[in-house]
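During the second half of the funding period, the structural biology subgroup turned its attention to how the target accommodates small molecules. The most pressing case was protoporphyrin IX containing FE, which had performed well in the primary screen but for which no bound structure existed. We therefore specified the complex as follows and requested a full 3D prediction, including the ligand pose.
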Amino acid sequence: MADHVRTLPVISSAALAADSHAIFARYRPSYPFVALDTGGYVVLRHDDVARLLSDPGLQATGAAMPVQAGITEGALYDIFDHGMLTANGEQHGHRRAGVSRALAHETLSQFREHLAKAARAVLAQYQNAGRLELVSEYAEKLPVIALASLLQLPEQDFPRFFDDVYKMNAFFRPNPSEDAVAEAEAAGLRLRAYLDGRLTAASVGHSDSFLSRYMSNAEQDGLTRIETLIQLIQLIIGGTESVRTALVAQTVQLLSHPTAWKAVCADKSLLASAVSESLRLEPGIAGVVRVSVQDIELDGWTLPAGQLVILSFLSALRDERIFNQPHVFDLARSNLHLARLAFGGGAHKCVAEAMGRAELEEGLAALVECLPDLQLDSRPAFQGHMFVRDTSECWVTYGH
Ligand code: HEM
């Protein structure tokens, strides 16, 4: 290893967990990346992160992550072994194509309409309560409602589906406990069996649904049954935690800036900017993890081959080289389109960005319309600096 690599700052994971934004802001002006005390590196700057998302020198991690956690088989292991997110090259394209084509046929306006109604129905249950725990009573529900609608699940299956999705997802959150991992494995197995049944029903029904289109794409593309199922599971994983955290973060951002909240209440055309600027400041996914298969030069420094590398959106989206006053919430930024980085880039770029944005915009629109006098009662903490981010409770009040 070259001398200059050894002089890179080594960041403790505990310090990062305590305040990732402050740590990244301290090192980003002087270093293109930092080392982690737990091993691996974090790339900090916007242009490097955007470029490296398409660099063949960085590869998806396959099943390395569960193996590192001592998991070598089972429902959770299969998600990594057979999924698109962790695959590379042709295998990745092969697994992604059927989902991508099936999603392209979805009518976004219908999806939005359904979501708008569902979000208002959730809020109506709390209309007279005067307070709401935003994470569990709102933000956690919308993305699962959206998926249930995409997959056309029968209403009587919702409670079980909700429960299993969130139990399985616990595995992907920062630092899951042993019990949570065991529950996630059991929930993953149940979900797989359930989706297997839905796929069979869709192929018999021959309706023009997302599932029947996806099923026939998967057959055409020669996906195995387990691959076919696991891409659906990845849609669930990709489409829940990221949306939940971003829904909470955008509400907190706006309520912390009452002028911006009032502006969005008065002018719905600002919803899209509010979503983008919130994703820039607190992205639903902290970053993506890759492994370096060759040395990579960045600004005179060498990122060595054979290392875990986090391409950090948390850092890149506050890069002072790109964004003026990067820590300030500003709906009128001229380069807000660069916040699209929150959805990734390159071959793995979010396969459902349009759906994700629709969920965030409709989720915000319903709050603004139903509870315009909303106020923040307790500020949540966001955790996680690698992939999925978690959020603690967030109480909001209204009608006082
Ligand atoms: C706030 C909303 C969302 C954000 C911020 C987000 C972010 C991302 C990011 C950063 C990636 C790239 C991962 C990587 O390169 O390793 C990604 C991929 C993916 N996302 Fe999203 N996402 C969102 C919503 C959704 C939704 C609603 C779905 C499904 C319904 C979804 C499904 C997926 C899937 C399946 C992948 C893997 C794509 C691949 O590996 O080719 N995401 N997402």
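Two results from this model are relevant to the next phase. Confidence is low (pLDDT under 50) at residues 1-5. Residues 84-85, 96, 234-235, 238-239, 242-243, 246, 283-285, 288, 342-344, 348, 350-352, 355-356, 360 surround protoporphyrin IX containing FE (CB under 6 Å).
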